[in-house]
Amino acid sequence: MRYPRARLAIHALTHFMVDFACFFALFAHSADLNEKAWLIFSYNALAFGLEVPFGALMDRFRDVRPATILGVGLVAWGALFYRMPWASLVLLGVGNALFHAGGAVASMRHCPGNALYAGVYVAPGVLGIALG
């Protein structure tokens, strides 16, 4: 691997942007509190529920970049369609799961045995959630 730190930096920055976009889009429309609660619950169920099967699937592929890039694209489309909250939620949830599974697999493959790099990949997502 030629530039593991540069790839890690790109994954970390993209992780921030993906989580920021997801939470910004979920809260951007003018739904009432009850609908927002259902949106957030449904988004979390979709995004976190799909990470395991997507991760298991990506373990079988040598290159996970296409799935990671597809995840970013779906999140971007989901953020653009924030005025259609349930359609946006599906795009955001599936995209987020694809990105997180692909980014985690790529980060672990690029820097095996180093927990610091896993933390560097994960940490910006928390900031993205908070600011989103």
General description of the model:
- The chain has 132 residues and is an all-alpha fold.
- Helices cover 83% and strands 0% of the residues.
- Helix 1 packs parallel to helix 3, helix 1 runs parallel beside helix 5 and helix 3 runs antiparallel to helix 4.
The fraction of residues in strands falls at: under 5%
Helical residues, percent: over 70%
What overall form do the CA principal axes indicate? elongated
Low-confidence stretches: none
In short:
The protein is mainly alpha-helical.
Features:
132 residues; mainly alpha
Topology readout:
Elements: H1 4-28, H2 33-58, H3 65-80, H4 85-110, H5 115-131
Helix pairs in contact: 1-3, 1-4, 1-5, 2-4, 3-4, 4-5
